[in-house]
Specification:
Helix content is 0%, strand content 50%. It is mainly β and 123 residues long. The strands form two sheets. Strands 2, 4, 5, 6, 9, 10 and 11 form a seven-stranded mixed beta sheet that branches. A four-stranded antiparallel beta sheet has the order 1-3-8-7, with no helix packed on it. It is globular. The termini are far apart.
Length: 123
Amino acid sequence: QVQLVESGGGSVQAGGSLRLACSASRYTDYRYYCLGWFRQVPGQEREGVAAIRQNDITNVADSVKGRFTISADNTKNTLYLQMNSLKPEDTAMYYCAAKFGGGGCGIYEYNYWGQGTQVTVSS
């Protein structure tokens, strides 16, 4: 089993920055994995924000491109999301997720999820 714990959420004014971290208890496969950040607003579907694979290839949602950066430090089993130029529409619960092994990185393929950390951006 893998436990994921997010940290770094909080309240910030528009234009500000936050850095989220997700600490994993362990990786079950360092050769093939997907690590991702998702967010969800009450009443809406969970959406992908950014993802990173074992070869450091990243995908970032168009809505946050140029503002958010995903990175991972595998020596610490930690995933990060640097969020700059935050907007009120970035307000959501942010979740990290992990999937180990080959295959795709679609949202339904992640099998480990954190409890979430709230990000609130005021105008």
